[in-house]
Every structure is written in structure tokens, then in C-alpha cells.
Amino acid sequence: MPLWWQLLVGLSAVMPTRAGDKPLNVCMSTKHHKAEPGPEEKLYVECSPWKDNACCTASTSWEAHLTVSPLYNFSLIHCGLLTPACHQHFIQAICFYECSPNLGPWIQPGVLSGQEKISGVPLCREDCEQWWEDCHSSYTCKSNWQEGWDWSQGKNRCPAGALCQPFPHYFPTPTDLCEKIWSNSFKASLERRRSGKCLQKWFPPHQGNPNEAVARLFASPAPVHKLSCTVTAFYLCLTFLF
Asked: DSSP readout, 143-154?
């Protein structure tokens, strides 16, 4: 084999590629998720959009709606009752997390817990904006609801010195709410619903699941990088050729 051809083959061998092997139609490996998705005819209220193909059971969907859910013993009313619209957004978010089989491209292994988690799930712009708007007059005492609570009495309480304030105090923008509240599990997308490039945390059951196509888009293989000679590499090629 000519020396110049060996050089080109060697350069192509080190060019980066991606296999695009992100899983589709899967459930996270956690305490409450099913081993694999399937029909669940009796999912409760806000979890019902996933009844045709769900990662949650009917029991989990019921427990997701309780004010202090036994799923995580977490109280949504740590600073008093949320407004009904605000409360609904949180129940929808819990259902989305527990029931959706379309989170595969964003599933990551849990470092400490040994259970899987999600990171950077792109929520549609309207989902973040409406969630933030509907929680404007509700109260909380933390911007990160995933850690830092006082669990001394068996359920989450505000840590010492954390004052209950209206949501905008801890979440000045819709992006802050979507991304901070569960340690970047969600990402505030600039894309809108029906763009095919973001996920909806809830959708009308009769319209079908729009998140399936979005998951396929994000799971599809990235283009394979073809061989390209930079200026430096080009001169290196010439050095060996001549």
C-alpha cells in the first residue's frame, strides 16, 4: 500500500463517530417504574395520557396525585397550599416523569442511588412559560426541590433560614423554574409545541402522544464525520507524498 494511502487511512481511523444508540420506548430503572412500558387502562386523571403505553402502574398514578405522595414522601405544601393551576402543573410533571416511555435519550445512571435518572429533557417553551405563570402567586422556600430539605420529621420541610416567598423570588424566569426545580432534569427549550423538537409534559389523551416522534429525533444517529484535512494535515499529507 502506498505511503500516502496509509496516511489517509490512519487519519480517517481517528476521526470521531457516533453510533446513535440511544434507547426508545423504555422505562427508567427506578423504584416505581415498570420494567418495560405497556398499556394501563386505569391511570388516574393527569397520568391518563399515557394509558396506551405507560411506564407507571395505576397505583403509582394515584399516589402521584396525593398532596404528600407516598412515592417519595414529598409534600407540595411545604409553604402552604399551591393554587389549583400551579398544583396541576406539578402533578403533570410527576406523571410525565413516572409514566412516559419517551425519555430514553435523556436517561443517565444515578451515581449515588444506583437508580437511573433523567437530565436535560427539553420541555417545550409553552410548558415552561405556563407553569411559571400559573405558579406566580404560590409560595416555596427553595429553588432546588431535589435536595437540601429538612427530613427530620419524615417528610420534606423548609431548611433552617429558608423563607417562604412567592415563586418568582426563587424562579425569576420560566427557564429558572424548569431547569432548577429538579436539578436540571428538565431543560427549557426555545422550541414550541408541534415543532417536533421538544417534549410536552402533558398532552390531551385523544390527540396521541407527540413525544414519540421527538424521542426518535433525539435518538437518531448523528452524522458520521467524514475525513477532512485541515490546513496542517494537508501539508502533512504533502510532506509524505513528495
From this structure: S-TTS--B-TTS
In terms of Cα–Cα distance, which of 173, 228, 241, 196 is closest to 6?
241
Output phi, psi for 81, to 5 deg. -60, 140
Report d(CA 29, CA 52) in Å as an integer.
20
Q: At what angle do helices 125-134 and 84-99 cross, to 10 degrees?
A: 140
**In 3-state terms, what secondary structure has residue 205?**
helix
Q: For the whole prediction, is pTM greater than 0.70?
A: yes
Q: What percent of the chain has pLDDT over 70?
A: 81
Q: Chain-wide mean pLDDT for the chain?
A: 84
Please report, for residues 6, 121, 138, 173, the alpha-carbon distance to residue 224 in angstroms, rounded to integers and kept in the order given: 21, 24, 48, 37
Reply yes or no on whether the pLDDT at 13 is more than 90: no
Could you tell me the maximum CA-CA distance found in the chain, to the nearest angstrom? 79
61-76: pLDDT as tens digits: 999 998 787 788 899 9
Residue 211 confidence (pLDDT): 97
Sign of the torsion formed by the C-alpha atoms of 207, 40, 63 and 176 = negative
Q: What is the 3-state secondary structure (H, E, C) of 1-53?
A: CCHHHHHHHHHHHCCCCCCCCCCCCCCCCCCCCCCCCECCCCCCHHHHHHCCC
For residue 193, the one-letter residue type is R
Query: How confident is the model over 65-90, as a mean pLDDT?
Result: 91
Backbone angles phi, psi at 118, to 5 degrees: -115, 155
Cell numbers at residue 166, please? Answer: 412567592
